[in-house]
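Subject: mismatched residue count in predicted assembly?

I count 697 residues in my input, but I want to confirm that the predicted structure covers every chain. Input:
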Amino acid sequence: MKSYSKKSVHRNSRFPHRFSALLDALPDVIFHLDDRGRFLDVYSEGDGGSCRLHDRDVIGMELDEVFPVPVARRLKRAHTEALRHGKLQIVDYGMKREGKESNFEARVIPAEAKGTPRRSTLVIIRDITADKHSRDYLNLIKKIFEDATEAMLIFSPRNEKVYFNESFCQMFGLECNEKPGKRLEDLERFFAPEQFSVLKEMIRRNGNYHGEVTVIRPDGSKLSAWLNYDILEDGEKGREAYEIAILTDISELQESREMLRFTATHDGLTGLPNRRMLLSHLEQAVRRSERNNHSGAVFFIDLDNFKYINDSLGHIAGDAVLIECASRIRTAIRKSDIFGRIGGDKFLLITEEIKSPDDLMHLASKIISVVNKPFYVGDLKHNIGASIGVAIFPNDSTNRDELLQYADMAMYQAKEKGKNRYQFYSNSLDRKVKRHFLIEKALRYALENDGFYLVFQPQIDLNTNVLTGLEALIRIDEKIAGPLHPQEFIPIAEESDLILKIGRWVFQRCCQRIFQWNREYHLGNVEISINLSRRQLMDESWPKFVEETLNKYRLDPTKIEFEITETAFMQSQKTGSRTIEQLQKIGCKISIDDFGTGYSSLATLKKFTVDKLKIDKSFIDEISHSSTDRSIVKASIAMANAMGLKTVAEGVETDDQKRVVKLMGCKEMQGFLYSEPKRAAEILRLLKEMKGKSEKK
Ligand code: C2E
Ligand code: CA
Ligand code: CA
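Triage response: the counts match. Full output below for your records.
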């Protein structure tokens, strides 16, 4: 058996000069293995010493003495296979090279060893790390290209190639593998001519296009897309190498954008233009009228008795009536008129190019008559009316907000005059109407600018003279619109939703005060009464608000009493009764305010188990002189006592009034005789004073 002499690799001596130069230049490692897989010779060490053959004397060594065991094992297997089948074997493997993970490809070729009968193999190892990276990278890019939801298209004009993905076919409505063309010009059939010429021009001029396009498919259907078209130039030659189009389907985005635009400018219930859109139309109409020297008018339409339908039949019926009403009015107006809903049961109509005031009168009557036709809710027939205020532009004003206000004022006047009629705005509109608008404005201002404050009026136990409660009463800062009394502004607030906001403000501020007082002085059994208006009873979210606010300030609900006027109480529909029950469930008390002015039935009083009756001031005023009033009060107190209700005499101003009500069995009083309503700081002083007195006793 021939023994191999171990010698260092030195091929130069064994090859003709030109071959050895060639082998030196090769990046590959080349060696020769004998039939048992031992190194016979090494012809090339490769460039980076792919397997570190250069620094090792390997002749006669086994593969696993030179390579890591797993690599050696694979090479050995390839070597055996190559010999067995007489065929080239290719093996890929990974191995660390200079600390970095690298990839190699080994080609094992069966060969006869020169001068020996033994069969042997030639092994050529190449570092394919860079190749593999770019191959992996290409595969990745290919996968991204193929799977992208974006439609992608690449033209390579120079070699007339085109690449496109599945999404492209889908977006452009192409059959599988149907080619879109070879140049940008071939895409013309997918776009409207004007759009395509702009597109082409931009691309030719700027080398790119980024913008919205509409793709027209062969079947005629359309789709909105965002197109990014870029031309990649060949760096050296400055010629275009590739043109790349990426299209993103934005039809859904556009739909939701459209939807958003629609909801921002339209009323959700009727689908008509909303306040915002109407105001912008009005603005434009006024400008047009100035330019073209014609007149237009704005109609402020408010339904009469609609609240009644809404309160008694519920919102669903109310909504149905509003929708029906809107469509009836539409039939009464011209196509070119702008008609919309500005909120609640209020609509606005803008009409232009009017010929004479007669036209307007005719139009207003027509609207009223269509609204007047009966509405059917279920089998029940209902009648409602419309009050319309009309302002004319540019005559009355060229300011859009002013016009709206004038039309509103005129509408209000129409209501004052008995409803279901129209009224033109005129400078000499009723003083009362003007005052109404001034107050409404003041209330809005006060709400937004902290212009309200609360005063509190004590309630006294007639037997012990001890303070038992405080009634919270609202005031508006005189600086806003001069002296304004709640008797005047509360009814105006009640005509709109302002009262709901005011009511919430009052309750929240009241709770805050109680919280503060409790910190400085323990209120003990003192109860706080808060006035609730009829509209608040109809507000289904009120009890929740009350509960949340009480929790926020950690207040005892049994110390809170809501005063509801006898009239509101009697008119409270289903919703109202539910609100009262819910407030009682929370733990709050209910008292009946202004008792004697409404017509309550004992049955209703019993049903609600209210806690207190407040006998109206008008009866107390005359109690010393009028025997009728005396008998009414006496009967009321007797009845309340029999039902276990407390009674409070309101507006007690004289000792005599106090004496009489006390004699009749009334439990408490409230009035100027003891104290006027006072601001919070004074009330705190009063409370502390009383505490001092009771402690001295
Ligand atoms: P009300 O609930 O009957 O309140 C009692 C009114 O009588 C208060 O008038 C009070 O200042 C006045 N008053 C009390 N004692 C006497 C007296 O001895 N002599 C005279 N002449 N008047 C007396 P105010 O504060 O002007 O309130 C008027 C009405 O405004 C209230 O009548 C109530 O219906 C309403 N109101 C006041 N504050 C609120 C509020 O916060 N919310 C609601 N919804 N209504 C309120
Ligand atoms: Ca009251
Ligand atoms: Ca009262």
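The chain is about 45% helix and 25% strand. Marking this ticket as 'not a bug'.
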